[in-house]
Amino acid sequence: MAEKMFRILAINPGSTSTKIAIYENEKETRRESIEHPRSEIEKYKAIADQYPMRKDAVLAFLRSAGLAEKDFDAIVARGGTLPPVRSGAYRINRLMVETLRDRPQAEHVSNLAAMIAFEIAQGAGIPSFIYDSVAVDELDDAARLTGLAEIKRRSLSHALNMRAAAIRTAARLGRPYGELNLVVAHLGGGITISVHRKGRMADIVSDDEGPFSPERAGRLPALALVDLCYSGKYEKSALKKLCRGAGGLVSLLGTADAQEVERRIAAGDRDAELAYRALAYQVAKGIGELATVVDGEVDRVVLTGGIAHSKLLTGWIEKSVKFIAPVELMPGENELESLALGALRVLRGQEAALDFDVR
Question: What are the sequence ranges of the domains in the chain?
Answer without folding.
Answer: 7-136+336-355, 161-325
